[in-house]
Amino acid sequence: xxxxxSDPFGEVLAAATERICAAVVATSTSxxxxxxxxxxxxxxxxxxxxxxxAWPLRTPVQLVALDSVYPGWDGLExxxxxxxxxxxxPHARGELGxxxxxxxxxxxxxxxxxxxxxxxxxxxxxxxxxxxxARLGDVTVWVDGPSDSRRRRALARDGDGFRPYWDMWAExxxxxxxxxxxxxxxxxxxxxx
Length: 193
Fold this sequence. Notes:
Layout: H1 8-26, E1 33-38, H2 44-54, E2 61-65, H3 76-93, E3 97-103, E4 108-115, E5 120-124, H4 131-136, E6 139-144, H5 147-158, H6 166-180, H7 182-185, E7 188-191
Parallel strand pairs: 1-5, 1-6, 2-5, 6-7
Antiparallel strand pairs: 3-4
Helix pairs in contact: 1-2
C-alpha cells in the first residue's frame, strides 16, 4: 500500500519544475523565455522560485514578477501590458528591456530595472500569458488549483494586506481568463492541490 505524501503541494511543484527545465533545455537557445501565469495562491511564485534555483542552462536567468509591476490592486491588465511592451517585445527583438518597480506603499513607480536580451527570462504573474506573450515565450505555463486552497495560501502569504482586495483581484483574474484563455496557451499545465 502506498503511503500518502506529507507534502503533495511540494511534490506537484517539483514535478512541474522538472518538466519546465526539460522544456527549457529542449528550446536549444541560450536566452529562452518562460512565462508562468495562474490564479493567486495557485503556486506560481513557489514554482518560479524552484525554477530559478534549478535553471538548467549555464547562462543566468532573469526574473520579472508582475507583483512588482502591477500599478495597484486594480492593475492586473495594465501591469501585464507594461511587461509585454517594455520587457517581452524588446527581449524578442534582442533589445534591452526596462521595467519600473511599483511601490505599493507610496502608490507610485519606483526604480527602473534592465532586462538583458542575451539572458534567459522568466515572467511570472497573473495576466502574463496572452496571445502575444505566448508567441514570444519559448515555454508557457499555467498554474491553478482549488479556490479554497488558493485563497488559504494567498492569505497566509499576504495576510491582511490582501484580504480586503481578494474579491477585486479574483474578478480581474476571471476577466483575464475569460478574455485570453491562458490555460489553452500553456505548454505545461500545473494543477496544485
